[in-house]
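[DERIVE STRUCTURE TOKENS]
===
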Amino acid sequence: MRYRPISPAALTAELTDRIEAVTGRSRIAVAVDGAEGATDTTALANALVDPLRLRGRPTVRISARDFLRPASLRFEHGRQDPDARYTDWLDVNALRREVLDPLADGGRGEVLPALWDAGRDRATRRARVPVPEGGVVLVDGELLLGTGLAFDLVVHLWCSPAALRRRVPAGDAWALPAYARYEEEVDPAALADVVVRVDDPRHPAVYEGS
């Protein structure tokens, strides 16, 4: 596989160009997908906000972590069940209903920025946020592909298996089988529009083909 080395700043600029090139929709949703703890999807999504706004694209930031299911459902089989993390943690229907569907043509154009406070295990009760025409909603999170969520552009942050094992915090190592299953069953690198190798986040590289 061929990867092109790129600086973090140049990566942000390149992704901003890619997002701007998405046409045919008045409002778009962009996903930044990657294993939590091993990749910093939040930092990359945050880095895209100001460049997009400088180009006149109103931008809303949303984290998939704020659309997790209640603890009674996530932890039904224990707090460290990798299969549950893979299939049961993210409230896919809520993310679709509250974020993606409103962006569709004919949608109301207002998104819910957060649904569930996982730390307190209760609803956030946040107000909806309008997304003007030309707006971009940036969603970061893990295990987002293969769920039927209709993103207009997907950036997948990929680590080699060795780097993934090295970079996932020791307390979250139990989740490694979930990431392995995601790699095997979904093959997110094949589905994403942009794949960025982040074995060393200071020196990312963009996938350019095999």
Summary: Helices lie at 8-20, 41-54, 71-74, 82-87, 92-100, 161-167, 176-185, 188-191. The first strand starts at residue 2 and ends at 5. The chain has one domain: 2-209. The CA atoms of residues 80 and 174 lie 6 Å apart.
